[in-house]
Amino acid sequence: MRVTPVSRLSIWLDQHWRSAYGSYVEMRRRPLATMMTLLVIGITLALPASLLSLLKISQSMTDDQQQSASISLFLKNGIVNEKALRVAADLELLPQIDHVELLTSADAMDEFRSHSGFGDALDALDDNPLPNVLLIHLLTDNGSMDIKKLASELKQESVTDSIEYDQGWIERMQAITQAIRRAVQALGFGLGLAVMLIIGNTIRLEIMNRREEIEVTRLVGGSDDFIRRPFLYIGLIYGLFGALIAWLLVSILLMLVSGPLGRLAELYDTTISLSTFSLQALLLLIPIGISFGLAGAWLAVSRHLSSIDPE
Amino acid sequence: MIHFENVSKRFPGGHYGVSNITLEIESGALAFITGHSGAGKSTLLRLIALLERPTRGQLLIDGRNIGRLQENEVAAHRRKIGLIFQDHRLLSDRSVFDNVALPLHVRGFPVREVGKRVRASLDKVGLLKKEKVLPITLSGGEQQRVGIARAIVSRPPILLADEPTGNLDPELSHEIMKLFIAFNQLGITTLIASHDLDLIKKLDRPVINLQQGELT
Q1: Which residues of B18-29 are buried (b: 16+ CB within 10 A; e: fewer)?
Q2: Which of A1, A21, A220, A311 to mutate to test the interface with B (most CBs of B within 10 A)?
Q3: Which domains does chain A have, with CATH numbers?
């Protein structure tokens, strides 16, 4: 047999294909056991993956909030619209500020009337008690310290009655998500190890079942690589399909929460696209599934194959 | 081709499989190994196939001291050898074809070549029509012939058979031996362990006789 580099490659591909296909056939022979193992792997991977997806969703919402970080500056009574507009123009010159919007007392009244349902009660008022407000939209790359500093500076202005900004809850939310993220990562790592052990154990049983075949293969000169290969493919297939099942479960979960999440997003004035998160989960799950599968298979193979020597 | 020099195999516990064997088997030879059970016939063959390692002495095959081979070189060494066992050692869940093809798969033969060689090999042992059946449906003599087809399919330079006719009646045994002689005529160095002295006498070939692990 002449061996050129091309035929060497085709032999290599052929051997790998044969191993992979053989492993697939082997798994198909016991569909119930295979399916149960795949489900266990899928559920185990789905748990941290879905938590991570939900975290990412909540993070994307708060990120949007941070982008629209703003300060409300309530003007003193008696400051007329022209004066207010001039102040607004001055403020826009400050480097931290993106733009400033004037919400006049009349605008505010209209908005309040239409949203609060106190329309009739408001009509009973002689004059408009609401102040003029400047909505100061900040540039997004400002740190929170800057916002505090700017707020206290603005408070000193002669036209200022009071200042309001709600950055605090965003910071708290971020701290909480950060903590949860760490916990999910640790959980994910632990469950990943569990997946590795499940696959390792499944492959250990597979090796025991195919003891005779391994012995005979050794007798006819099969190398360790050749003997190892089908088992590594089994690990890879379990990891891959386990990841796909996990992804399916995550997608179902995302679909279930999409309704409430959509309403929540509306309240926060943002939109979320669940398909993005589903795709992200897939891109994360597949390499993780495959590497844990291979690692588990490698563990079992290196531990148990050497113990099988032909009689 | 195969050169034993003061080779001993001592098993854990102190029992000797073979002891102090010095022996030269020329390339292309055919020899029988005889002796009572436990005389060391199997051990001698197992040493050549590196199923056991010598505890003493040198065992040279093609000039290489195989006692010194690393674990990862053993597979390559076994590919030079066709092995035949009394109990055939066929895989019961695979067809005759797949059983015979296994040595070619481990050598990375392309699919088309595998088909050609397996059929040629099965043809030589007269089982061409049985390629699709499972070994278990075959008679003992047929199973042994499948084992032989598997051993010769990769055309190894050395053929080792351990009691290949142990379970067969005299007529079948003679047929199997004739197969070995035919392969030997193609240049394959052949060693056959057997205690069937009547049959061996008829075939008139060199005989290596072992007694309690030693040459007599």
Answers
A1: bbebebebeeeb
A2: A220
A3: 14-65+171-307 (no CATH), 70-166 (3.30.70.3040)
